[in-house]
Each structure stands twice: as C-alpha cells, then as structure tokens.
C-alpha cells in the first residue's frame, strides 16, 4: 500500500532546458547589451590593451576597426570605446560572449573571470 502512495507523490523540479547560443550552451537566452550597459562595459574592459584583436574576435567589421586605428593611432582608449560601441550596436553583444572571447581567444582568463563574477547572473 505504501508503494501506491509513493508513486503518486510529485516533486516539482525546475530543470533548465539549454538552448544553443553562439556556440555555447546557456540555460536562458541572455539579454543583449545596449548603450545603457556601455559604462559597465568600459569599466570591465579598461585594463585590456589589445582592443583591435578583441574587436576581430567579437566580429566587429574589420574595415571599421582599421578606420578607428587610422583615425586615432595613439589613442587606444578612444579606439576601445568606439569598438565596444560598434559591437553593442551590432545587436550580438552579451556579457557571456565577451567572457568566452576573453577566455578562449584572448588568453585573458583573469579578466574573463572578474567580468563573469561581476556582470553575469546565474
């Protein structure tokens, strides 16, 4: 008789169903970064010096990166800011993509971890 009671017990379980997003598994579709996130993005990447390579890996249009480099050859901070705004404007910018790019493509695991802990909510 106890077996019948146990079979009728239902335990609600919340199971995230992963979806494919930019080559990585994610439990929920992540919010796209917007211009409202720009100040946080600037703070998060302020120690990064190789803005050009990051832009390539973030799929910012190469000709636009070259134009930035030509127009502001000695102002790396300004170039980084403009590149990040171009990335945000693409509609494909998320914290997770930035973290994955920094970790996997830019060999910046420490920076990736700090950004992940600060800006990604799990």
Describe the structure.
With 122 residues, this protein is mostly helical. It is 54% helix and 5% strand. It contains 7 helices and 2 strands; from the N terminus they run αββαααααα. It starts with a helix and ends with a helix.
In brief:
With 122 residues, the protein is mostly helical. It contains seven helices and two strands. It has helices at residues 2-8, 38-44, 51-57, 62-71, 76-89, 95-104, 109-119, and strands at 19-21, 24-26.
**Taking Cα atoms only, what radius of gyration do you get, to the nearest Å?**
20 Å
Our estimate of the beta-strand percent is under 5%
Shape: globular
The number of strands is: 2
Count of helices? 7
* Alpha-beta classification: mainly alpha
Features:
two-stranded antiparallel ribbon; mainly alpha; 122 residues; 7 helices; 5% strand
Which helices and strands occur, and which strands form pairs?
Layout: H1 2-8, E1 19-21, E2 24-26, H2 38-44, H3 51-57, H4 62-71, H5 76-89, H6 95-104, H7 109-119
Antiparallel strand pairs: 1-2
